[in-house]
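Ops channel
N.P.: pipeline sanity check, posting one input/output pair.
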């Protein structure tokens, strides 16, 4: 392959008019658009088709920053970020993309969107270099590609043969790196006054790496943008809050730990100092080498729940009560909820809806994610019954310096669940159904463990059977729950909805229970004795065999799913006291 280096200033790739955003349109066709085109034509674009789910929110937030600023542009002048009231939001939602304002804004800042710009390349430092002059392979930007210590053993890529990224690919991974890069040691930049021995330590993950990202989406990209385009005020986005490309001075190697200026600052947070090195490969511009150095760090004492719109939150009140004065950092009132790898999104519905696991915490001030809250506020203007909630996240490994797993799920939810006024009975019902399902899974797990004990299995085997049975039930109920929750529309049918779900959960639980019972060995028929240890009581010898295990499961399930049983048979026998404390996972 003919490959020769050319000086960086011979290259240009301007994101405003050159294509880098792959999409599928509302007719099912595919294409790639420029920044200008994707915003102006967003009603005809169904959605972006990115390289990995975690690229989606990072790129969307860049589009949102451009749109917020475009709406405040008129006749070549900037008037701040918009919309700033509900009326303005409704007007824009109904009228579609403001093409004239988008064009004016992008033309004004066009030079800051050149990926290989000489003075201020997009989201980069123009003269960034390492202390020893070395560069890194482009695979450093890609979380699933081999690069240094973050090399997955299954990857065929090696640092010695770095990927040749197109400018479009490099742009998408550049944005992704700022948002999701791993923590740990980074290459020291030559002009970084904090770099020591050619490196910087103490780096944190990218800003989105701390979140369990959730993004409401519509039937086309314009709807998605507007669902996430918040109504701004001075607390959320003061006048000095601008995207990073509007800063008076381009990025330099030096970085700082600071508070965010507002929403647009968060959307375009320069979490790393990066430089792409373009070269010519067979007549085409490619990026094989990069530098990724330390970038700005968000102050750990800054509460983000009033700004960050794309995550759920949990209260730290209980931790605050037990916190000691020796704590290294102040405990914030709310912390973001991160996604659990392998767990369906609906199992965390309480957090998504700002209510906690039991569905009551919104009354205690737990915030609903701002993007979902906005959908609830404008549900009449939106005029739809369902929105799809896209969830994405990364589970980091050792000291957050490696990526263990990525998370992605999409859950259609009724807009009615995001109501901010009234009793929100449908939201309470949906969360109660998740809790009831968890309790049914707990009962099934106990059955599996009881059968293992009765069969003479060792303690480790008993413990292993319990989560296996639970996961079988969650898997069996995954699609049924998604269909059921999407149908929650009428508050007058609360008890009908509850009974429908309890019957569905009971049927699935009993199907799995029947398999477990049928597969039990003959030895499970004989009684074995163990000590039960309910809270506050001394352990008493309790017999256990297959028949007793089935009977206990039947009682527990009836207690957990009462609406699945006829009314005259809905009062279960009193359960043993340890069963009273069974909770959802």
């Amino acid at each position: 392959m003919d490959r020769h280096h050319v000086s960086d200033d011979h290259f240009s790739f301007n994101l405003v008019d050159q294509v880098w955003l792959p999409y599928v349109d509302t007719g099912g066709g595919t294409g790639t658009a420029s920044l200008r085109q994707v915003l102006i034509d967003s009603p005809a674009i169904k959605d972006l088709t990115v390289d990995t789910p975690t690229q989606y929110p990072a790129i969307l937030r860049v589009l949102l920053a451009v749109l917020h600023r475009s709406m405040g542009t008129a006749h070549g002048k900037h008037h701040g970020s918009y919309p700033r009231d509900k009326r303005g939001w409704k007007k824009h939602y109904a009228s579609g993309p403001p093409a004239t304002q988008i064009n004016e804004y992008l033309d004004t800042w066009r030079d800051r969107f050149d990926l290989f710009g000489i003075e201020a390349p997009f989201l980069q430092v123009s003269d960034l270099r390492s202390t020893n002059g070395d560069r890194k392979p482009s695979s450093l930007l890609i979380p699933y590609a081999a690069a240094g210590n973050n090399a997955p053993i299954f990857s065929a890529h090696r640092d010695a043969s770095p990927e040749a990224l197109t400018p479009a690919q490099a742009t998408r991974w550049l944005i992704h790196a700022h948002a999701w890069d791993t923590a740990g040691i980074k290459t020291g930049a030559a002009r970084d006054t904090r770099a020591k021995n050619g490196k910087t330590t103490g780096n944190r993950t990218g800003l989105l790496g701390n979140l369990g990202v959730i993004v409401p989406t519509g039937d086309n990209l314009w709807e998605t943008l507007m669902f996430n385009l918040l109504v701004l005020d001075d607390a959320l986005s003061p006048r000095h809050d601008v995207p990073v490309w509007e800063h008076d001075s381009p990025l330099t190697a030096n970085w700082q730990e600071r508070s965010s200026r507002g929403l647009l600052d968060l959307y375009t947070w320069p979490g790393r100092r990066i430089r792409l090195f373009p070269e010519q490969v067979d007549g085409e511009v490619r990026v094989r080498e990069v530098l990724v150095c330390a970038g700005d760090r968000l102050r750990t004492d800054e509460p983000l729940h009033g700004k960050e719109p794309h995550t759920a939150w949990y209260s730290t009140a209980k931790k605050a009560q037990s916190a000691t004065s020796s704590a290294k950092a102040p405990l914030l009132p709310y912390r973001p909820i991160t996604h659990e790898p392998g767990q369906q999104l609906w199992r965390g519905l309480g957090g998504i809806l700002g209510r906690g696991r039991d569905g009551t915490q919104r009354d205690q001030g737990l915030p609903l994610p701002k993007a979902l809250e906005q959908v609830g506020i404008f549900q009449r203007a939106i005029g739809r019954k369902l929105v799809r909630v896209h969830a994405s996240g990364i589970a980091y490994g050792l000291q957050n310096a490696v990526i263990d797993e990525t998370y992605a799920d999409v859950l259609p939810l009724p807009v009615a669940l995001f109501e901010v006024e009234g009793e929100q009975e449908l939201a309470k019902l949906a969360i109660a159904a998740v809790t009831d399902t968890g309790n049914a899974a707990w009962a099934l797990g106990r059955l599996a463990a009881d059968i293992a004990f009765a069969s003479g299995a060792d303690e480790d085997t008993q413990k292993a059977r319990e989560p296996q049975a639970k996961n079988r039930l969650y898997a069996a109920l995954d699609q049924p729950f998604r269909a059921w929750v999407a149908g929650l529309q009428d508050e007058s049918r609360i008890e009908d909805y509850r009974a429908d779900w309890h019957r569905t959960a009971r049927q699935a639980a009993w199907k799995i229970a029947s398999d477990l019972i049928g597969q039990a060995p003959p030895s499970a028929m004989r009684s074995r004795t163990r000590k039960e240890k309910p809270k506050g009581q001394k352990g008493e010898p309790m017999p256990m065999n297959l028949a007793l295990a089935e009977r206990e499961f039947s009682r527990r399930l009836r207690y957990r799913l009462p609406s699945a049983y006829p009314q005259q048979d809905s009062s279960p026998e009193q359960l043993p006291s340890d069963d009273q404390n069974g909770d959802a996972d």
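N.P.: looks fine end to end. The chain has two domains: 3-298, 425-581.
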